[in-house]
Amino acid sequence: MNFTAAGREPPAGLIAGLVPSSVFASNGKMPDVPSPAALDGRSSDELLVAIARDRDKDAFGLLFGRMGPRLKAYLLRSGIAPSQADELVQEVMLMVWHRADTFDPARAMASTWIFTIARNKRIDAARRDRRPEFDPEDPALVPDQPAAADRSIEQAEASARLRDAIAKLPAEQADLLRLAYFEDQPHSAIARHKGLPLGTVKSRLRLALERLRRELAGS
Question: Where do the segments described as Disordered lie (predicted)?
């Protein structure tokens, strides 16, 4: 949808004051790839904690620029119309802003927590549309029930073991691993951001994964 032609504010109007307009494309839509600024040194977990603790608008802008394009791609793949995807992305991120204090890094990564919100927003949007071909009782679209207590403990322990194993990696390997697997950044983008040859990035990631497997197997 062209918001300017329709006489409406572009999507950025929904989050005015929280996200710089440079996050959006010139047509007022969410870009398809994260902005270069989104490759901040902090992890998404750290950005989300800063939002919860300090109501940090700069951290929120970075998180929005990093997660927005990924959320949009997810919504488009799940059948949401392009004209609706940008607005849903902002609804998701507004909820992230308002509910950041409920995020628990010991239970889930920031990206997992945010995508869970997006999944539920997608289900709500589909139900509102009341499309004949959509079955709101489809089990695949019903939000997951809370995990059993023992399962939650197992997940927390597994997450703790993984964090401990990553902490034992050399700093340059741990950093590349976080960007590639936790922030979902392409190897080529990491190479440009770090000023490293692409082959170096790939070889360090291989070494990091080998060490991580050995460490986790030993634990």
Answer: 127-150
